[in-house]
Design brief:
The protein has about 130 residues and is an all-alpha fold. Helix content is about 80%, strand content about 0%. It folds into two domains: about 5-75, MYOD Basic-Helix-Loop-Helix Domain, subunit B, CATH 4.10.280.10; about 80-130. α1 (about 5-30) crosses α3 and α4 packs antiparallel against α5. Its main location: cytoplasm.
Amino acid sequence: ETYKLPHRLIEKKRRDRINECIAQLKDLLPEHLKLTTLGHLEKAVVLELTLKHLKALTALTEQQHQKIIALQNGERSMKSPVQADLDAFHSGFQTCAKEVLQYLSRFESWTPREQRCAQLLGHLHSISSQFLP
């Protein structure tokens, strides 16, 4: 008898956790999936719809990943290694220049209309153009 009471409480807590998780899954499901069933969604149906949705998302993610790889491989095969390196350098340079300008704007109160800002932009542009035609 002393064993049954704690066991019942533990079982109730476990069932409550399961039910709470199923309720959260139900809330996460897209509306169009919820509408495929009529009325109340049983726990088993919620789990089935969740699996269906996760499988669809996984397939979509894999397709997008494959497209990205194909595009990257296509771009690499069309460009010479030197050109690919120059593109990467130019992209990094532009990102760095943008960060410098944001810093000066935010913390040094530079405005694009100031002469020193225009001079810096011109200098960064001329340096950048040296690496790409």
